[in-house]
Amino acid sequence: MFVSDPIASEAIVDCIFCKIAAGSIPAKKVREDDAVLAFHDIDPKAPTHILVIPKKHIASLAEAKADDAALLGRLLLAVAEIAQEQGLGKGYRVVISTGAEGGQTVDHLHLHVLGGRQMHWPPG
Ligand code: AMP
Ligand code: ZN
Asked: If DSSP codes are grouped into helix, strand and coil, which group holds residue 90?
């Protein structure tokens, strides 16, 4: 992959979700297409806990650009399809931790899909 931005390039080299997208570290995949990958969270916080990521490295929602609009839409549509496939007809929660105060611990955009139990508000 050619990456012209040296900062983005560094992030990709060290990025665990880029490595999962590239297949160089394993994950329990749920769905994959040319642009979107979904896999089970390694430390589930609900009976169903799936992460949906763009294969392209976007560090966080805050880093998304206007050019990413279609990709962001695909991520949300993938979430809805996966929720249906996973039997989450009674409901589910989608979380996008963004930045330090948002609790983001992996700096590659990811949508948490949590379901299979009652969710509460406010979240922690
Ligand atoms: P956040 O803390 O919101 O940025 O979410 C990061 C999520 O990635 C956490 O729920 C972690 O359990 C999950 N995670 C970290 N490493 C892996 C991995 N190798 N495979 C699957 N999930 C992971
Ligand atoms: Zn990445």
From this structure: coil
SS3 assignment, position 70: helix
Domains of the chain: 6-115 (3.30.428.10)
Closest residue to atom 17 of ligand 1, CA basis? 42
Residue 15: DSSP 8-state: -
Task: Tell me the residue type at 48.
Answer: T
13 CB under 6 A from ligand 1?
Answer: no
pLDDT tens-place string over residues 24-73:
999 999 999 999 999 999 999 999 999 999 999 999 999 999 999 999 99
Mark whether 120 is an active-site residue.
Answer: no
Q: What is the CA radius of gyration of the chain?
A: 14
